[in-house]
Design a protein that fits this description.
alpha/beta
Length: 261
């Protein structure tokens, strides 16, 4: 059976009236015409990234231009409940961030934000590059929705924003109660896997979830306290100490499994 290849056409979702024709642009048209060598009369599959697939037929194929006629719109049903939002501090090596973005999209989630934290090793992310990876992964895995991508955001600014549903912060240290006036700051001990609940155990199916993942040096104690003061619950991802991108992928997988339909 011939594999179905999808092309990304976000403009279809922006048209108020059901579209009947369209123009595939840029790299998508180039891939169809020059790599796959498709021509007039060939059927193609399109996705708008907002929940609808389309069956279409190529009507014009010249140079770098590809025109098509839509034969059928196919609205898709969500594959998971709630809204799954992962906010992570990007790693120093961008290939690890790109790997995470691709794999998390293949699994399925809704939103990605990059955090600028106290111990962040990277302060700048090329959003255009990450966005292309998200789109490629959406097409490859036949996802009807493209994850929303947010740029670099200061940790404090992110924490202060109102968010629906459950909020969690994954970290590798436990916190004693805040000291009383005149007392010294309590010591920090490494988490042993039992001190904090496992993220999977406290996720609620169908409830929007936001999960924070820190840099290789972890969140600072001040950041963890600030998050907890704003309603975030401290959780663990298990006994293993994970790299940032691995921890982020584990968190996405847990959210997806808990909310899968």
């Amino acid at each position: 059976m011939k594999e179905e290849r999808f092309f990304y056409a976000p403009e279809l979702a922006e048209q108020e009236v059901s579209p009947s024709r369209g123009d595939l642009e840029g790299s998508e048209a180039n891939h169809a015409l020059r790599v796959l060598r498709l021509g007039v009369g060939d059927e193609i599959r399109l996705m708008d990234g907002k929940g609808t697939f389309y069956r279409a037929t190529i009507t014009t194929a010249t140079g770098h231009r590809l025109l098509y006629q839509i034969d059928e719109a196919e609205p898709q049903q969500p594959a998971w409940q709630g809204h799954l939002h992962l906010a992570m501090a990007p790693t120093k090596l961008m290939d690890r961030v790109e790997w995470f973005a691709e794999k998390a999209t293949e699994i399925g989630f809704d939103e990605l934000t990059f955090l600028d934290t106290q111990f962040s090793e990277r302060k700048v992310v090329k959003e255009e590059r990450i966005d292309k990876i998200l789109i490629s992964a959406v097409k490859q895995s036949h996802k009807a929705w493209r994850p929303k991508l947010n740029g670099m955001t200061r940790f404090k600014d992110f924490i202060m924003q109102e968010r629906e549903g459950d909020k969690f912060i994954c970290h590798c240290q436990t916190l004693s109660p805040l000291p009383r006036e005149g007392e010294s700051l309590p010591s920090i001990t490494d988490v042993d896997g039992e001190t904090m609940p496992l993220l999977f155990d406290v996720l609620h199916p169908g409830v929007p979830s936001t999960v924070l993942i820190g840099p290789e040096g972890d969140f600072s104690i001040e950041e963890v306290r600030l998050a907890m003061e704003h309603g975030y619950k401290s959780v663990t991802l298990g006994r293993s100490r994970l790299r940032t991108e691995t921890a982020a992928l584990v968190a996405v997988h847990m959210m997806h499994l808990k909310n899968a339909l």
